[in-house]
Structures are given as structure tokens and as C-alpha cells.
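Following up on my earlier thread - several people asked me to post the actual chain instead of describing it. Fair enough. Here it is, all 324 residues.
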Amino acid sequence: MALSTRTVFVTGSETCWWEHLEGVGLKDRDGTLELKLKEILRHPFPGGRYHRKRGLQTNQSIKFHQTPFQRITIAMPTRLPLPSDFPPSLNPRIHPSEPAPSPTSISNVVIFLHGLGDTSANFSHFSRALNLPETLTVTLQAPFPLPLPMEAGHYHWGDDILVDSGTGEVDPDCGLSKAATLLSEDVIKKVLISECGFKVREVLMLGYGQGGMASLAIARTLGPEMELGGVMSIGGPLPSSCMLVNGPKIRTPVLLLGGAKGLIARSNGVARTKGTFENVQYVQWKKGKDAMPASREEALPMMQFFARSLRSRKGVPKGSVEVG
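Reply from S.P.:
Thanks for posting it. Predicted structure:
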């Protein structure tokens, strides 16, 4: 099978890579390696810390005072996931499914998690409407059905069901360790990484309400050594049981979105999330309640986050393999 590739530039002790390498110019001036890139998406520095390079323009030069120069390549995902790959309890909805895309046309996987009392069938309409480029979306259903006399045929992510005696509403922050372990181990590690060949940073998550809390819990469960491409949570802060007590913060980028009177705003959710994750952006909408984006203004931060986080392989020749 013909493979597209990523290109890795190794200069001395520094390893730097860029994706979407459309038109790369190389020059060597007095031991200085000069790279001119049409698009620069990400730039990891030594020591394992992963940073975004901001403020770089098309065709801007970057110089490294290190030699020698070596270029190698890394293969793409070997295959795309099928619904049968996932635990049946998660009732996955994959888009696009028809016509089936090839692995070389997909650069990202975004996992969508619905809110409390919803289903994957209903929430998958949102993922299909986004129609993200070079991206496979996988909408998963919570593995636990709501008990009777609550809504039959609807599901939740919690370890338990806690009902507020004052309001009669179900508390979404009721422990999410079972769902977080199931998705981190059986979905991300087993299916997407081990069986399909995706890299951890090619996997993103978007969740609504309790699904957003589950998304953050999954990133927390994966730990600081497994950095996802990003997590977006609409109306769901980090669960209180997932707060970081000690150790390094999680480097997965996080975007929190919610209403001025929503759960994130009224539950100290921003501080709790920032105490566990290194890079957290919070956008508070003008409307009071938490709900899905209903205007361009509300959706813009989410689309900007996707633009920063999604990877692209357009411009990389298919089948290119080069070493040395």
C-alpha cells in the first residue's frame, strides 16, 4: 500500500518536525540550516515539552545553528477503525463511512461524547455537520443506561447516579473512572493506536456536558506522557475526582466553553481544570445556560481550536520515503 509520510528534521540534539510540508526550501549558510516552509503548524522542542510556534507567517525562515542535518520519514495509519473494533456497549457512529475513505486521506480522529441522557445516534448529527477536513469522527455512546423510571433508551457516563434532592436533577459529577478507563484503554490505546496506527496527538476529543467531563477525565487518565491533540468540553469542567494532587500537569490542550451561569462558571471548574492541565483556554458565552453553539460567535473559538489542533498532510507526496 502506498503511504504518505511525515517528515522529521533532526539537527544535532534538537528534533523538530512540521506537518503540511508543502514546498520546503533548504539552505546551508555557514553551518546554519535555513528552512522555509509554506505552513508551520507545530514545533516540539528538546526535553519532551510540546509547544505551539505562534506568529510565524508563510515562507518565514527558521534557522538552527546545529549540524549535521538528517531527514527521515514516519509512516501513516495502517487502517481506519470499524464499528466492530469498539466495545459493543459504546454503539459507535463513524463518519465519513460511505464512501469509505483510505488511511492516507485521514490525518485526525475526533471522538465525540454526548451529554447526560443522550445517545450516540442523536449526537452524531453534530459531528457530521462539522465536516472537518482530513478527519474521521467517532461518536460514542455512554456505556451505562439511565435506570427506570428515568428516560429509557438514554445513557450516562458516571460510575453512579446521584440525584440532587433539592432540584431533582442528576448530578453529572458522580465519578467517571469506569468510562475513562474503558475509553482510554479499549478505544484510544487498543483500537486507534495499536490496531490502526494513529499517533496519540492525532486523536482529539469533544464532549458536551457530562461527555465533556468524561473527555477531560480520559485525558487525565492517559497521563502526562500521552498528549492528545486536544480536548474541547462544552459545559463540562474536570470532574472533582480527577484533580491533580501532585506530579506534572497534563500537556493536552484544553478548550472550555460554557454559559455565564453554566456548570463551569458556577462550580470553580476553570480553576480545577487549570490545576490539572497545562494549557487551558476558557470562553464564557454571553448567554446564561450551557448549550451547544448556536451562533457564529459561539462556534468561532471551537473552530479556531480545531484549526490549531487538526493536522494536515496535503502537499506531502504519496509514497515518499527519504532517509539521509
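The longest strand covers residues 5-11. That should answer part of your original question.
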